[in-house]
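User: Here's a structure from my thesis project, written as structure tokens. My advisor, Dr. K., wants to see whether a designed sequence matches the one we expressed. Can you design one independently, without my sequence as a hint?
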């Protein structure tokens, strides 16, 4: 084995993607093949200078391929001359079998002429992929790689579980095989630094979905995510690129993202340990929650959020003005945790940066919900964090028989997540467990944050009784109550703006004049919206009786009655949500008491929390070593008794 062959084999890196194969990273030949090395193989005489220049300037990969094909050292000059005379350079690689044979095998030649054999051709063709591991250019939307391509994923490959529409893997990527591109149309990559690890999502078909639909979903999701990159929002996980790999017509489809070193929000709640809550922890947490609210605002209202900023011109140029995005599946698992590996804050633990990921259900739309007559096609989501209107169908009241998903879906989901985050801040992981157990029934082991009640022949949603109990308990906690506290203000945002069943009547200022006119015209041809709102509302009318004033007319002697419908405060939109969070975090108050006036009290004991089809769940907190020996009720049947950390749960049939 020659020195060159040995060096080339040592330069190989194993690919962890798919088959057990090796590749030679891009740029490796620059320091392996120099003028001295080339001279050892093609000669060092003056008349051989042109051949040496040819190799160094145009054919270093070709030179390495021939060396690995099994050609003997003394045969190299003649073989290299054959390729030089045929004007074959690195730019013509890779070669297929027919093209290679036209160059090196002549009908009148023998193996003695040129020193080339069928075995050399076989080795040459099978070695080529090692030198052409793809380079991911982030300025390109999609990459198509044949099945023979050896993808440059190195280090460990780890399956991380499944998202809504795919399986997610962790890979290391060779830094020479990801570039930012030179396209000035992609300023988001100007300061790109190749990450050590990436998350690769393999797209899988949805339920009953054909391959063509899956491919369309991959293309659509990639397009939406690339448009979202233009938001330049630090709290949204950016897509790096998309690619497919395999035999034509049967390729696997992938999306590539930044790798979240900490996992997701649920893992943050589990892994971040603290001896006690501090004002520094509260500040760090609220800063991240503000960032998440800003991300939702940027996604829901891109042009509005960009006004008076340098991004407004970018949006207009890229055609984003008037468009908006909604996530559709917000949950702790989709809030990714990017640890700051270099800096821990003053709290002594790594809060890092939270980013919203897995936009698999995301939609780019330019028609507000009230203007969309047909239901959107999203079919998946997580019921735990879905809003009441997903069950009742009362997303807008222009037509009760049409069910549409709006951006307000995300606002409710953020309310659920923020409440869980607040419970974790105050009471830790044990508090979160107690909260979860307070909502669970035998009939519904994963209940949403609302319940459905029947009234006036229609189902309507109410905030889950246990959620209300926990929010009331938190409001009285020493860490939240008092004259203005950060966590108390956060609780107010959650229950006054986010976990609100009632929805805004119409989009108002969020619509353009054209959209408002279209809505007005369409509504007049269907049903009067105000009538529908009143009929479907739970509001209590305020009746005002005015005393009549004496006049000459008998008709004027009757009292007048004014009926005023006072609508409850509806769920907030993204802008209001963001501004309220900004008001908390940017509040000009240096008092530590604002951030944490006192140590948190204990979490809520498990209480009677729900009725479900005649079944009542009784949760009795016990003190000390009290033991429940017997449970008897004349009007009930004992279904079961369980105990969790000093709390006995009694299930009875009423």
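Assistant: Designed independently from the structure alone:
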């Amino acid at each position: 084995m020659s020195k060159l062959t040995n060096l080339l084999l040592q330069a190989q890196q194993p690919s962890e993607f798919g088959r057990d194969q090796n590749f030679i990273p891009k740029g490796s030949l620059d320091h392996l093949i120099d003028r001295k090395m080339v001279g050892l193989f093609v000669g060092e005489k003056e008349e051989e200078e042109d051949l040496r220049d040819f190799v160094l300037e145009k054919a270093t990969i070709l030179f390495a391929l021939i060396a690995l094909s099994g050609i003997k050292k003394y045969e190299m000059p003649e073989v290299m001359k054959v390729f030089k005379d045929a004007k074959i350079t690195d730019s013509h690689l890779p070669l297929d079998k027919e093209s290679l044979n036209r160059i090196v095998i002549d009908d009148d030649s023998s193996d003695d002429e040129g020193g080339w054999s069928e075995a050399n051709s076989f080795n040459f063709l099978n070695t080529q992929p090692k030198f052409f591991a793809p380079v991911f250019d982030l300025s390109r939307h999609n990459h198509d790689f044949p099945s023979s391509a050896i993808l440059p994923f190195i280090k460990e490959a780890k399956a991380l579980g499944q998202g809504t529409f795919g399986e997610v893997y962790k890979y290391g990527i060779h830094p020479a095989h990801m570039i930012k591109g030179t396209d000035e149309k992609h300023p988001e990559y100007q300061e790109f630094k190749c990450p050590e690890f990436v998350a690769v999502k393999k797209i899988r078909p949805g339920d009953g979905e054909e391959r063509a639909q899956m491919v369309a979903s991959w293309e659509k999701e990639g397009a939406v995510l690339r448009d979202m990159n233009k938001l330049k929002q630090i709290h949204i996980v950016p897509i790096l690129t998309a690619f497919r790999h395999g035999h034509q017509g049967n390729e696997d489809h992938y999306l590539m993202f930044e790798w979240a070193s900490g996992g997701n929000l649920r893992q943050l709640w589990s892994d971040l340990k603290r001896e006690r809550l501090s004002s520094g922890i509260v500040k760090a947490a609220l800063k991240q929650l503000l960032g998440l609210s800003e991300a939702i605002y940027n996604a829901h209202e891109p042009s509005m959020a960009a006004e008076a900023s340098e991004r407004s011109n970018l949006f207009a140029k890229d055609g984003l003005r008037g468009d908006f995005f909604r996530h559709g599946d917000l949950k702790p698992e989709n809030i990714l945790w990017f640890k700051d590996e270099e800096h821990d804050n003053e709290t002594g633990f790594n809060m890092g940066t939270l980013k919203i990921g897995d936009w698999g259900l995301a939609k780019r739309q330019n028609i507000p919900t009230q203007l969309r007559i047909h239901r959107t096609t999203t079919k998946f989501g997580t019921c735990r964090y879905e809003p009441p209107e997903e069950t009742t169908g009362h997303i807008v009241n222009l037509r009760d028989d049409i069910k549409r998903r709006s951006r307000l879906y995300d606002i409710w989901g953020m309310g659920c997540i923020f409440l869980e985050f607040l419970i974790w801040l105050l009471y830790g992981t044990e508090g979160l467990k107690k909260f979860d157990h307070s909502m669970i029934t035998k009939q519904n082991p994963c209940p949403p944050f609302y319940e459905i009640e029947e009234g006036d022949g229609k189902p309507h949603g109410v905030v889950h009784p246990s959620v209300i109990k926990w929010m009331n308990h938190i409001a009285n906690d020493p860490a939240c109550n008092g004259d203005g506290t950060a966590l108390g203000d956060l609780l107010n945002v959650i229950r006054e703006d986010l976990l609100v069943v009632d929805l805004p009547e119409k989009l108002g200022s969020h619509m353009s004049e054209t959209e408002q006119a279209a809505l007005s015209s369409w509504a007049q041809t269907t049903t009067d919206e105000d009538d529908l709102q009143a009929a479907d509302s739970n509001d209590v009318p305020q009746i005002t009786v005015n005393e009549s004033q004496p006049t000459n007319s008998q008709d004027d002697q009757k009292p007048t009655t004014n009926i005023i419908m006072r609508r409850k405060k509806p769920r907030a939109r993204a802008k209001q949500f963001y501004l309220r969070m900004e008001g908390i975090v940017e509040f000009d108050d240096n008092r530590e008491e604002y951030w944490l006036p006192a140590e948190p009290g204990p979490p809520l004991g498990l209480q009677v929390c729900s009725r479900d089809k005649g079944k009542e769940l009784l949760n009795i907190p016990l003190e000390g070593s009290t033991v429940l020996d017997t449970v008897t009720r004349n009007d009930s049947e004992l279904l079961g008794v369980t105990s969790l950390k000093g709390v006995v749960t009694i299930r009875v049939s009423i």
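When you compare it with your expressed construct, this may help: The longest strand covers residues 153-162.
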